[in-house]
Amino acid sequence: MIKVEKLYKSFGKLDVLKDISTEIKKGEVVAIIGPSGSGKSTFLRCLNLLEVPTAGKIYIDGQDITAKDTDIMTIRQNVGMVFQHFHLFPHMTVLENMTYAPIKVKGVAKERAKASAMELLKRVGLAEKADVYPTKLSGGQKQRVAIARSLAMEPEALLFDEPTSALDPEMVKEVLDVMKSLAHTGITMAIVTHEMGFAREVADRILFLDQGRLLEDKTPSEFFSAPSSERAKQFLEKML
Amino acid sequence: MELNFDRIVPSIPYILEGIKVTLQYTLLSALLGFIWGTVLSLFKISSVKPLKWFGIAYTSIFRGTPLILQLTIVYFATPQLTGYQITALEAGVLAFSLNSAAYISETIRAGILAVDKGQREAAMALGVPYRRMMIDIILPQALKNILPALVNESIALLKESALVSTIGAADVLRRATIVGAEKYVYFEPLIVAGIIYYVLVMALTFGARLLERRLRRSD
What we know:
The complex is a heterodimer. Chain A is α/β, with parallel strands linked by helices. Chain A has helices at residues 40-46, 72-78, 94-106, 110-123, 139-152, 169-183, 196-202, 220-225, 230-239; strands at 2-11, 14-24, 29-33, 55-60, 63-64, 79-82, 157-161, 188-192, 205-210, 213-218. In chain A, the strands form two sheets. Chain A has a six-stranded mixed sheet with strand order 6-7-8-3-9-10, sandwiched between helices. In chain A, helix 3 (94-106) runs parallel beside helix 5 and helix 4 packs across helix 5 (139-152). The model of chain A has no long low-confidence stretch (mean pLDDT 93). Chain B is built from eight helices and no strands. Chain B has helices at residues 12-44, 49-64, 67-82, 88-114, 117-125, 130-160, 172-183, 187-215. In chain B, helix 2 (49-64) crosses helix 4. The longest helix of chain B has 33 residues, at 12-44. The N and C termini of chain B lie far apart (55 Å). The model of chain B has no long low-confidence stretch (mean pLDDT 94). Chain A binds chain B through residues 48, 50, 73-77, 80-81, 83, 85, 87-93, 100-101, 104-106, 133-135, 149-150, 153, and chain B through 116, 118-119, 121-129, 132, 136-137, 140-141, 144, 217-219.
């Protein structure tokens, strides 16, 4: 579904990503981990072109999204993103947040958009919050709404950029639970996270990045029991 | 010192008539100035270099010269340059909106830049095109934050509209001076004009407060 070939990204003189190649299959859940500053978020943001790669190619469903003539808006409708700081639209209610893009971008009929938004809100356990404004929600609730908002576009893949890093510890679980239940629905997920337990339990594969390089690309059991690089070993010793 | 309001009482309705004229100039200029100012602010944050330069040069010129000069140029030079006999209303509204847009564009630009960058990214990630994103996501948040500054600008515009009395429009100030000249008393009609302007500004302030409260619903 997502194929990355020799991806490079630099900000001025700073090389953030170096020669990254990997593939994420349809329905796969991939956790991207690594020390801070390793380029994991930049890598994720390249996948929907929030960052434009310096070199290399990214294919989504066989289409080269780095090509000049690609309609990136259509790609983005199909690859949702969940941010560390939620970024809900503060001037819209929860329901409006969720129906805005389906109605205005995809052209879904209002009533239908509302109905499916309510379904999704039920799924994340927030049906009673449909008409409140985001400021009235806790961090965990905001993130669950943000996930539901992305799902409202019915994307094939969802990118998560440290979805629990800005949350109070007691709210982390409610968000991870929602993500776990999502993982079983067959949607493709790429998750940048520091939650090792979650990555081990839910991910099909672990990508380990350090200083812009992809050092490990393994199943969780291989990675956590026998990382091949010295850097991953050190990292795991500190984290676990 | 002797004040004699009795002598101008019959003329007060005549001065009050000027409110319509004053409001006409103010509201039209505020509306057009706001629209043009929004467009200019988008020029200024645009990545298209010529648009950006145009926006910057425009602001620099209209902020760098007196409003009364701009007004007189528009009123007296338009017939000379184009042969078109511009009316006082057209000249006034044109000059005021062009001038006000220069100030408003800076305010709106600041408002847009103050909206969290994440809002833009969230909209982009949902596949929302630039235009829609600006209209539905960014500008509503920007406007809410700069509403007090926009109210300031409208108040300034309301008071500056008195400049049209110099090109012969019968606004509140002009009528007050006419009454003064007719009755040989100046203090009383000018005080009446002052009170009218003050009441109008207060009404505007009050209306803005109601609007702001409504916009703060989501806080």
